[in-house]
Amino acid sequence: MRITGLRLHPVAVADPPLRSSYGLHAPYALRTIVEIKTTDGITGFSETYGGDGPLAALEAARDRVLGMDPFRLTGLWQSFQRDAGRESAGVAGGHTQTYLLPGENPLDRHARTYAAIEIACLDAIGKALAKPLCDVVGGRARDAVPFSAYLFYKHAGGGGLGEDEREDEYGECLDPVSMVRQARQMVAAYGFREIKLKGGVLHPDEEIATIKVLREAFPSYPLRIDPNCAWSVATSVHVGRSLKDELSGGGYLEDPTATLEGMAEVRAILAAHGIEMPMASNVAVTRFADVPEAGRLNAVQIVLSDPHYWGGIRNLQYLAHLCEVLGMGGSMHSNNHLGVSLMAMAHAAAAAPGINYACDTHYPWQSAQDEVVDGGRIRFSDGCVVIPDKPGLGVELDYDQLARGGERYAKLPYRKRDDEAEMRKRVDPNWRRVLPRW
Ligand code: GKR
Ligand code: MG
Question: Which of 74, 90, 237, 379 has the most crowded Cβ, counting Cβ within 10 A?
Fold first, then answer.
């Protein structure tokens, strides 16, 4: 089998005005749907970050993808690794780069591009062998993958612009009470059994109060909070001490502060107060080399993997295994995404036994109007995505929907996610991302 065609479909997906320490989500998130064709007449799909940067990187890979045998993934990975190696000397700032938005970090640019090709190849291989993708990469550890309810503080609005403005399903949520309403609504719709709150938006005491009311409303649910490094070490310790009971029992404190050293300090101070707080990260740990270092410093106990920027599904399996070897847990990070990406995440987690926490997903924030998967939105059953008994990822594309996504994309004036600019435009003209903010 050889790859004979590579098609890249940029799409725009309506997104509500969600807040984080990065700023504010724009009315549309950008994604790219990748399609490969093979000599056997098989089409493989994947979904990755959107906008000019990811598109140009994929376009630049066209020559090495065309003619390639989709089974020969190791060679492709090595060629991207060589590119990354050549560039690394020129990338200034090392780890400081990781505080950029996921999908914008130059350090994992090649891993992201490779991942988009790898997943499409694995989808094609699954179709060629008539096997689900997770079984092609060694077999599944689970048939159903649990996801968590990913709560966001948000302004009023459902995303989209003008005539394309969407219904505001969850309403404005800028205080603890409305957040409980959001959680109840999302749990009722999807059956999630774990909850993650995106923090770093309101004063930390308001966010502490939010977790406390969520605990009252969901007494048995593991709870997590992730302010994306918005807090100093002292504030992180304050939050950890205030929420020592609420975040125990399967929950965790995710990226409260910047750098592995900062995370290690928070963990050590909390331990000195008798609090064994599990710390998770998708910001301080973004490369394989970070994982042993995070263990050595005792900075991170749970690594959030992500096939989109950790170099695809097989690298995610290696990562989950490395975490197990080092005595760490595994979870999964998410950005805005459609069903192709959700299925890739589900297959990856199914085939990686070390992913032992419910995965994140932004999926509830997107709507059926934007879904490009044939047959519409992926369904959840009791908070899980069940691995379908279908080859590859188990989904086909709806090309009319894809074309609509492309039309929305063509009309947009921006080609890059910029939450800071959006925040200045819609909420506060003087807003800047400051770390730590509190
Ligand atoms: O969508 O604003 C967001 C999130 O903050 C996202 O960009 C993060 O990458 O979900 C992510 C996280 O866990 O850090
Ligand atoms: Mg995070």
Answer: 237
Structural domain that includes position 113: 3-131+401-409
Same domain, 272 and 217: yes
Query: What is the three-class DSSP state of 96?
Result: helix
pLDDT per residue as tens digits for the range 374-425: 999 999 999 999 999 999 999 999 999 999 999 999 999 999 999 999 999 9
Q: Are strands 252-254 and 223-226 parallel, antiparallel or unpaired?
A: parallel
- Kindly report the protein residue whose alpha carbon is nearest to atom 12 of ligand 1: 333
The per-residue pLDDT for range 93-130, each reduced to its tens digit, is 455 445 678 788 888 899 999 999 999 999 999 999 99
Is pTM beyond 0.90 here?
yes
Ligand 1 lining (C-beta closer than 6 Å): 18, 20, 22, 101-102, 198, 226, 228, 282, 333-335, 360
Q: 335, 416, 435: which to mutate for ligand 1, most atoms within 8 A of CB?
A: 335
Give yes or no for a contact between 384 and 193, defined as CB atoms under 8 angstroms apart: no
Contact (CB, 8 A) for 405 and 398: no
For residues 55-66, give the mean pLDDT: 97
84 and 169 part of one domain: no
Burial state string for 342-379 with b = 16 or more CB within 10 A and e = fewer than 16: bbbbbbbbbbbebbbbbbbbbbbbbbebbbbbeeebbe
**Ligand 2: distance of its center to the CA of 360 in Å?**
9
Check residue 305 and report its DSSP letter. Answer: E
pLDDT digits (tens, 9 = 90+) for 222-254: 999 999 999 999 999 999 999 999 999 999 999
> What is the H or E stretch that residue 144 is in?
strand 144-146
How many domains in the chain? 2
397: three-class secondary structure by DSSP: strand
Query: Strand, coil or helix: what is 292?
Result: helix
Per the document, the length of the chain is: 438
- Distance (Å) from CA 202 to ligand 1 centroid: 16
Active site residues: 198, 333
List the CATH number of the domain containing 194.
Answer: 3.20.20.120
CA distance 254 to 303: 9
For residue 203, how many other CB atoms are within 10 A of its CB? 11
323 within a domain of the structure (yes/no): yes
In a domain, 287, yes or no: yes
Residue 414 identity: Y
